[in-house]
Amino acid sequence: MPCFSCGARQTDPVRGASPWKRGVRQDAQVLICPDCQRMTDLDLDTCAACGSAALICRLGEVECRACGEVRLAGHRPDCPERPEGPEGLADEVAAALDRVLGRLTSHA
What we know:
The protein is 19% helix and 19% strand. It has a domain at 21-81. It has 108 residues and is an alpha+beta fold. The protein has two helices and five strands, in the order E-E-H-E-E-E-H. The longest helix has 17 residues, at 85-101. Strand 4 and strand 5 (70-72) form a beta hairpin.
């Protein structure tokens, strides 16, 4: 996955942890390259409870790594509508499994 801001491709670090960071933007997980991390306004989502940008997005939920607050993805006024309820989550889980397992089926 490239940097969401500049499109640079991630390379493996020589040793140690990667200098790339993860973030959430419009309820989607994004990667941020070291150069773009220096930018002051990356327009990343922040936690409604504590204001931190240390968020992760997985299986339809956004979790704050700073305070532990969890909310459903797509429940923001500026976020496009997503299907709600068990059917919407089931579709998201099925799509995630298809991506991970390399299936080429489509879930409408």
